[in-house]
Amino acid sequence: MHTILFCRVSSREQEETGYSLDAQEKLLKEYSNNKGLMVAKVFRISESASGKQIRKMFNEMLAFAVKNKINVIGCEKIDRLTRNLKDAATINDWVQDDPTRSVHFLKENFILNRNTRAHENLVWDMKVAIARFYTNNLSEEVRKGQKEKLAQGWFPAKPPVGYKTIGEHGHKTHVPDEQAPYIKRAFELYAEGNLSIGKLADILFSEGLRNHVGKKVTKPRLHIILSDPFYFGKMRWKGQILPAEHEPIITKDLYNSVQSKMKRKLSNQPAYRKHLPVFKAKISCEECGGMIAWELQKGNWYGHCNHYRPCKQRTSWRQERVEESLFPLFDKMTPKDPEVLDMIKKALKESQSTEIDYQAKAIEEVQMTLNSAERRLEAIYEDKIDGKIDSAFYARKFKQYSEEKENAQDELNKRTNPNYRYFEAGIVIHDLAQRAADIYKSPKATVEYKRRLLSRIFSNLTINADKIRVEYTKAFQFLAEWMPIINDTFEPPNILCLQGSNGDLDLSCPELRAYLYAFRTFDWCEAIEDIETTTQEINELLSLIE
After folding, report:
1. pLDDT band, residue 420 (cuts 50/70/90)
2. How far apart are CA 522 and CA 520, in angstroms?
3. Based on the domain organization, do 76 and 178 belong to the same domain?
4. Alpha carbons 332 and 343: distance in angstroms, whole number
5. Is residue 189 within 8 Å of 200, Cβ to Cβ?
6. Cα–Cα distances in Å, from 126 out to 133, 266, 425?
7. How much is the pLDDT for 31?
8. Which residue among 272, 298, 314 closes a domain?
9. What is the pTM of this model?
10. Does residue 1 carry a pLDDT above 50?
C-alpha cells in the first residue's frame, strides 16, 4: 500500500528547534517503513509559504491521492495538516468517502478513518479547534507586533531594494546596502525628465543594479521603487504614509520631483523610442495642451500638434527653427558683458560671510517653530490623558501639529546643510547660463546632453504659431528676472562709473546691492533639489566646451 507524507513548518523558530522539514520527513518515512507503507510522494510546506500557497499545496495533495488511488496520508501532528475548519471538513469528507482511507498522525498516535470511535472524533475536533485558535492567536500577535514596530518608526516587513535587515530577533532594523547608490542614481536620472522607465531600467542594469535574487529590476518593479516614500525616510503601510526612523537614501525634494515627472509622463508624454529627437516630450501645444509630436522627414525633425484635443493649429515646426527661437532666451539669463559676470561672481563670494549670518538667524527661527510644535504635541497628549479633550479633537490637532513639526524639521534639515555649497552651485548656474548657447551648439553635445540642458533651464515649453513661450526652472527664473536689470545698470558707459580704482564693481551701487541681497536670500535649497548632482551635471555640461 502506498502513502503520501505531508510536512510543514510555520516559523523559522520551529525549524531551528527540531521541527525542520527534513526532520519531519525522516520521522514519517521511518513510521511508514514500520507499517509496511511505500512512500509515493512527499509534500513539503516551508515557513515562507503564504496562505494561498498552503491551500494550493493542500488541494494538490488531495488531488494526487484521488488520482493515484492512494488511501493513506501521513503527518506528524494534526496542526501540521490543518488549522481551520474548512480544511478539517475537507479531510473528513475525503476519509468518509472510502472505508480504506485514513490519515495517520504520528506523534499523537491517532488514526482518522471512517471507523474512528466517537470519543476519538471528539479528540480530532478538539485538536482542530486548538490548531485554529493557535492560528488566530498567532495572527493577532503578528498584527500587535506590527503595530508596535510601526509606532517605533520601523517597517514591519522585508525592506525594498537598496536596504538590508540587520540585528537580532525583536531588534531588527533596515539600513542601506550596496544597492543604495543605484537607487539614488535611479531617482536622479529620472528627475532629469529625459528617460522612460524602460530605458532607465536598462541603464541601471548595465551599471550594476540587481533585485533581491540578482536579476534585472523590471519596469513595473522600478516604477514601484520610484513611487516608494521609504527611500526619503517615510514608510507606506496599508495606504498610509507614516514617519520612519531608518536612514533615507534620497531627499524629499528629489522624491517629489520624480513624482511630478512620473505623473506628467503618465498623463500626456509619449513613450520612449529608439530615435529620440531633442524636443520629444519637451514642448506642448499652447492651444490644446497636447504634446508636440516629432517626425523624421528627409533627415530633418518636424514637430506638429496631433490634435487629440480640439485645436486649430496646423503649423509644422522644423527643429532648427525652434532652436533659433530658444537661443535669445538663453541670453536673457546672463550679463551681456562677460567681465560684468566675473565681477559679480567675485562680489558674491565676498558677500558669503553675510550669508552665514543670515542662515544662522533663519535656523534660529525654524528651530523655534519646531520646538513650538513639539510642545503643542506634548500638551494635547496630556490633555487627552486627563480627559480635557475628546479623541476626535486630539486626532485633528495631532495631525495639524505633526505636519507643522515635519515641515519645520524638513526646513531645518535644509538650513543645516552646508549652505555655502548651495551658494557655490548658484555661482556655477551663472556659468551655465552664460555658456548655454555654446553648449547646445557644441559638436560634443549629443541629443541626450541637449535634453539635459533644456531640462535644467526650462520647466515648461509651449508653442503657438511661430511663438514659443517658456517657463524657467526656479534657479534660472531668478536669473531671468535679474539679468535685464544688471544689463541696464552696467551697460557702457555706466560700467565705467561703477568701477573702483582696482577695476572691481562699486558695492555701494543700489542695483548691485539689491541683487546681492536677492541672491543671498533666494531659497537655493528649494531651487536646487540635490546640490551634488546639480553641480556635477553642470560641470559635465560645461566640459563640452572646454
Report:
1. low
2. 6
3. no
4. 18
5. yes
6. 10, 56, 73
7. 92
8. 272
9. 0.52
10. yes
